Structures are given as C-alpha cells and as structure tokens.
Amino acid sequence: MPVNVSAVKPRSLEDPRLEGRAVKRIAFDAQTISSRVRELGDAITEAYPDGDLLVLGLLKGSFIFLSDLVRQIHRPLQVDFLVASSYGDAMVSSGSVRLVYDPETTLEGKHILLVEDIVDSGRTLSRLMDLLSERSPRSLEVCALLHKHVAEHLRYPTKFVGFDAPNEFLVGYGLDHAENFRHLPYIASLQ
Ligand code: IMP
Ligand code: MG
Prior knowledge:
By secondary structure, the chain is α/β, with parallel strands linked by helices.
C-alpha cells in the first residue's frame, strides 16, 4: 500500500480529543483504516484454511486494531493478549523482553498470529517472536497495522501489513503519545 498522507489543516481547534495539540496531518482517516482492515481480514481468512488460529494482541497499542480486525476474519479463532515489558535499557540491543502477561491459552500446535500496532525498529517484535517460537506453534506470523520500514535487520518478516507508515510520530487508533490519543478514530502525526 502506498503511503496515504493527505494534507489537512491542523485539527486541534476542531477536535476536543486533541487537548489543543496541533496535529500535522491526518495520515489515515477512519474510512481508509476501516476498508484496509476489511481487506486484511479477508487475506487472513484465506491464509488459514484449516487448523486452530490464535490471534495474539500485543498490548496496549493493538487493542483497537485487533478488535476491528477479528470481526473481519470469517473463520473460527481464539483471542488472547500479551503484555511485554523491556527491562535493562530498552534502547540497547542486548536488552531483552519480559512477558508481564503471558497468554493463558496454549500455543502448541496452533497457528499464532501476533498483532502489533506498528513496527518501527522491530526490536520488540524480534524478541517476542523468539520467545513465542519456543512454544512449538504450528505457524507463527505477524500482522501489523503500520510498518515504518526503517528497520535494517528484521529477522521476522511481517506477513500482513495494513499500511506503510511515514517516518513520523503517529498517534490514534490505539497508538499513543504518553498514553494519550489512543482513542482517536483516525491516525495522525503529531507536530
Ligand atoms: P520497535 O520495537 O522499535 O519496533 O517499537 C515498536 C513499538 O514502539 C510499537 O509497538 C509502539 O508501541 C511504539 N512506537 C513506535 N513508533 C511509534 C509511533 O510512531 N507512534 C506511537 N508509538 C510508536
Ligand atoms: Mg506505545
């Protein structure tokens, strides 16, 4: 998908959800997101003709995307969540990821689809995938709403991508800035 960045005048005055923060532009509006999520649901439905499918949402950023996405997947599935926490210095590549909430459902023998809000450096993802692959799933893939395509050494390709994202700081539709703006129905880049 091409980057769809429409120049829209700052919405801070129009949208009370923004607390007066100026938004540079709306990167993806609600309509665009909704039709892309429907396409992703169709692609995922087709990709898993059989077997048990467990959709694993990485909290918190994926919560809105996941809830819309699973309703567009037309086959049986289960939903669970992961909460990951970096310890050590998260900016250092030798740092590691710890699961603060570990899925209660068993992963063994199931198709696991890890759902992420956005892939940036890809570090979070790589470490989680290492960890999940040790649990003998039947398959292990990633679905990310947004992909910045800035990571140089992604060890796990993202099979399903909603949109190629501009290399800007994005908020809304689950993505936050200091826990704010997750509830925006569109995705915007902050000034
Ligand atoms: P990575 O490990 O660098 O790929 O970081 C991925 C995580 O960083 C995502 O799951 C987001 O929580 C956060 N993140 C990265 N880029 C953005 C952004 O533009 N807006 C909001 N959160 C972001
Ligand atoms: Mg975040």
